[in-house]
Write a structure and sequence with these properties.
By secondary structure, this protein is mainly beta. It has one domain: Porin. The chain contains 2 helices and 14 strands; from the N terminus they run αββββββαββββββββ. The strands form 3 sheets. Strands 1-4-5-8-9-12-13-14 form an 8-stranded antiparallel barrel. A 4-stranded antiparallel beta sheet has the order 2-3-6-7. Strand 12 and strand 13 form a beta hairpin. The longest helix is centred in the first third of the chain and has 22 residues. It is elongated and about 80 Å long.
């Protein structure tokens, strides 16, 4: 008789206990509107080289071998991403690529001019800083959006704005009247705007309500003006064209989540 009373009491409490148990489970939310600040490094690479560039210092013509590479640089990014649904979103970003350069010079043939040697030595190891910024927009595809760790893929297209010529090459040599410039290659543009494409992969990790950390590796395929061969004489604009350089970046970001979509309760 007592057992029947206990069973009846348990059955009468079951509708009350079931919702209470469900409400005690964690709610899995989805980030929808995210603002990101990131920092890291962009790896450098070789840009162009010319084996024999004639320089009319004195007769017979002297010849230089020249190389230019893109230096590794600090990467800084600011972006925003909006997810109207669970997985596919749209991101807009400003990304500092740098695009600084480092030059190499070697005298291939010298007629004995000390000025030529001094100008080449000035070019050798010379570095140029730059502030190339990419502005881009593109889709983001994330997975496991309600999990603590959420991997994602992204693609973005845009433009790179650079303030340093990737063509102009100048060496300085001393004269009795002061330093003088040997302009090996000239350029009629100090700054340029070129297209870019970014392909990236990474993941986010929630560290607190409304905050995430982000890790990403990306191939920044960037248009850069490149010298394609020697010019007949120095002090002119050499043959050149836009080449698309693969500049790989590794960044760590901090996300502020301003809007969240409440997930289901389990």
């Amino acid at each position: 008789m007592r057992l029947r009373r206990l069973v009846g009491l348990a059955l009468s409490l079951l509708p009350v206990l079931a919702p209470s148990s469900a409400s005690s489970q964690g709610t899995k939310d989805q980030a929808r509107l995210i603002f990101t600040v990131s920092g890291g490094v962009v790896l450098g690479r070789d840009l162009w080289s010319v084996d024999k560039q004639s320089v009319q210092f004195i007769t017979p013509t002297d010849t230089l071998a020249l190389e230019r590479r893109i230096r590794s640089n600090i990467a800084i990014g600011f972006g925003a991403t909006y997810f109207p649904g669970d997985n596919l979103g749209l991101a807009a970003e400003g990304f500092l690529l740098g695009l600084g350069f480092e030059d190499s010079c070697r005298v291939v043939f010298s007629s004995g001019s000390a000025d030529l040697v001094a100008a080449c030595q000035d070019i050798q190891g010379n570095t140029k800083s730059a502030s190339a910024v990419g502005l881009s927009v593109g889709p983001v595809l994330r997975f496991s959006s309600q999990s603590l760790f959420s991997p994602y893929l992204r693609a973005n297209v845009g433009l790179v704005f650079s303030n340093q010529s990737s063509i102009r090459t100048i060496g300085t040599f001393p004269t009795p009247d002061g330093p003088s410039d040997l302009i090996v290659y000239d350029d009629d543009h100090e700054s340029r705007v070129e297209p870019m494409l970014g392909l990236g992969a990474g993941f986010t990790a929630q560290i607190a309500p409304g905050y995430q950390l982000r890790w990403e590796v990306r191939d920044n395929i960037t248009g850069v003006q490149t010298v394609t061969g020697p010019s007949p004489v120095a002090r002119v604009i050499p043959p050149h064209e836009v080449s698309y350089q693969h500049l790989f970046s590794f960044t760590i970001g901090f996300d502020v989540v301003l809007e969240r979509k409440r997930g289901r309760r389990y």
